[in-house]
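Reminder: ligand-aware prediction takes two inputs, not one.
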Amino acid sequence: MSNVPRTRWSDQPRRSAVQKILDAIQAGESAAVGSLPVPEHYRGITVHADEVEMFDGLAAKDKDPRRSLHLDEVATPELGPGEALVAVMASAINYNTVWTSIFEPVSTFKFLERYGKVSPLAKRHDLPYHVVGSDLAGVVLRTGPGVHNWKPGDEVVAHCLSVELEGPDGHDDTMMDSEQRIWGFETNFGGLAELALVKSNQLMPKPAHLTWEEAASPGLVNSTAYRQLVSRNGAAMKQGDVVLIWGASGGLGSYATQFALNGGAIPVCVVSSQEKADIARKMGAELVIDRSAEGYRFWKDEHTQDPREWQRFGAKIRELTGGEDPDIVFEHPGRETFGASVYVARRGGTIVTCASTSGFLHQYDNRYLWMNLKRVIGSHFANYRESWEANRLIDKGLVHPTLSKTYPLAETGQAALDVHRNAHSGKVGVLCLAPEEGLGVRDQAKRERHLSAINRFRGV
Ligand SMILES: NC(=O)c1ccc[n+]([C@@H]2O[C@H](COP(=O)([O-])OP(=O)(O)OC[C@H]3O[C@@H](n4cnc5c(N)ncnc54)[C@H](OP(=O)(O)O)[C@@H]3O)[C@@H](O)[C@H]2O)c1
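Here is what comes back for the chain with NAP:
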């Protein structure tokens, strides 16, 4: 098998194998895929190792994912023990694909190279191309030796935690495994493709009332927000907590808002437009701050923050809550907001962070942290159990997908650009094998009960 992305060979064998798989799934006979041949090649969205310097000298905002994300035909990887090969019907854009596509903060080929040193099996991932994507909804095609809980034909979604668990560290909480990785970001053969390779302990049942693209969209952000806000590994939110949620209509924030509302907490949603404020209200939030309309400038210049702006922001929160400060601040914008987040958290409150979109060198006034006994908690993705619990909430119709728009696989670059430019709301979906939107619903009655909530973000 070649390691080089293929675009020059005859496309016919791939097309015909893929079409047979698709026909079986479309006919509602997913179990039949177990006896159909697996294509030797498949189409997937890649970045190329020989292009990692293509954006050198440009500011991050000017780096265009449409130039670096390619639709290539690549070799189907060999299936190893404990793994599953999945026919991907739909996937979604996560911010990690934006990072991969602009080669920031580092090129993901460094991750693949490091992973390749772990074992001969892991070496398969170390290639001159990287098939990206950390979400999927699809059908199991094959399982490797030692997989007993899943079989060909199972309709699934996949969470993106990849662990080896050969050492002791991860046996209390798998996120602590010394070989913990994010599938499709720090490993190859990700979900923005016709096929994907996952470990079987990434698989979870696809909620039967959702379409392929709806089922694929909560995955990464839903699990992350669940651990960050709800789990005892994160902020362990309880009823009555005031929760300040940055980017409340974005990927993470749209799930954090739903968790806060479901859990009896009081979300204070921060967004940047009237349209996004409306969508936060549609989810049921009553306290919403439009940061653009308020014009906060937490930084006077590149090096100096403005504590008066923190105070003005804190006063706005108190005005909305009747004088209360946040028990929890749900952080991810990072450098631009972190000083304000530490300032506005209540005495004894928690700032829980999983990202640094605007810059990872944070500055805050430590007097407000220690004198007021606040805590900063770092949180990253979620373990299998937490991901399962988050997916179960989707399955039960207690939390809903926040899909706003869906692109075909060939337009993934544009989809990633939308997210890079913050021109989207909720989640942006991508159709992989699914020929159109709206397919894959197996429980229509349940869908009808939740239809308006499922469609809240559509077209926003
Ligand atoms: N550690 C993990 O496991 C993990 C998991 C998922 C995501 N992440 C990271 O978390 C970050 C957010 O991911 P996402 O999927 O939620 O992205 P997203 O869909 O782009 O949503 C982020 C939201 O944050 C707000 N925002 C962006 N820049 C801001 C700024 N400078 N100040 C205030 N608000 C700002 C925006 O909302 P408004 O413009 O409406 O305010 C935006 O909608 C990314 O950096 C991503 O890589 C980490």
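Residues 94-96, 220-221, 224, 246-247, 249-253, 270-272, 276, 291, 332-333, 336-337, 354-355, 357-358, 380-381, 419, 422 surround NAP (CB under 6 Å). The two ends are 44 Å apart (CA to CA). We will return to this case in the review session.
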